[in-house]
Amino acid sequence: MDSAVAVRNERIRPDDKQEPSNLILHNNAITRALAYAAGLLGATSGVKAQLSHWADLAMASALIYLDLRLPELDWRSTHPNLMTWFDRMVARHACAHP
């Protein structure tokens, strides 16, 4: 999440003030984090009966932020199991609180 915010902040700076090395560093960190999360899911993408880990909430929040601020990363196409997990997580918890 820190790297996603750093990329967003760098991109809203004027073009001549942006640091390409910062963009590369933080985009690589995002790529590694997504690959790690997708790897933890493996071939499965089910959501547990209850939200039992704060990490689940943090990951879902980070993915929402990526969709909002860095949609060009297109994490859904590169990590379909993470996309399935996210979609199930959102569907399950969107109806939990009327």
Mean pLDDT: 87
Would you count the extended β strands for me?
0
The fraction of residues in strands falls at under 5%
What class, by secondary structure content? mainly alpha
Q: Outline, from the CA principal axes?
A: elongated
Structure, briefly:
The chain has 98 residues and is an all-alpha fold.
What report would you give on this structure?
By secondary structure, the protein is mostly helical. The chain has one domain (2-41, 49-94): Glutathione S-transferase Yfyf (Class Pi), Chain A, domain 2 (Up-down Bundle), CATH 1.20.1050.10. The protein has 5 helices and no strands. Helix 1 (2-11) runs antiparallel to helix 2 (20-41) and helix 2 packs across helix 5 (80-94). The two termini are 28 Å apart. The mean pLDDT is 87.
Tags for this model:
mainly alpha; 68% helix; 98 residues; Glutathione S-transferase Yfyf (Class Pi), Chain A, domain 2; 5 helices
Task: Detail the topology: elements first, then pairings.
Layout: H1 2-11, H2 20-41, H3 54-69, H4 75-78, H5 80-94
